[in-house]
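Researcher: Structure prediction, please.
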Amino acid sequence: MGSGIDRNQILLVDDEKVIREIGQEMIEILGYECITAKDGEEGVELFRKNSGKILIVVLDVEMPGISGEVVSNIITNEVPNAKILFISGYDREYLEKKVFKKKIMNFMAKPLSVKSLSRKFNEMLRGNAV
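Model: Predicted structure follows.
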């Protein structure tokens, strides 16, 4: 039904295959098209190819190669109002103090659930969350 909608994609970037598979399934249950990337480099490439269609980038923080923080910086330098949701096995406090050294706008701890993802997506798309 939603094929007429241009911006209906969620980009999921995570180095763990099982997270990508489960995440994709949850995102599709919520009615979005999901594209996945196995690392930061592929995530940036897919974002550049599909940026006009992507509503939200779901981004793992800790990945080999380019980290989620660096990917986020690249994306927001190119598209300042891009909506990015950070996901991690670490808690928000640790990430804010040790990794980002600043407040993180949108964050969810793993494991994710369909209900919590739905709530977060709605909040990000409805509000002015970036």
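Model: The mean pLDDT is 91.
Researcher: Thanks, that helps.
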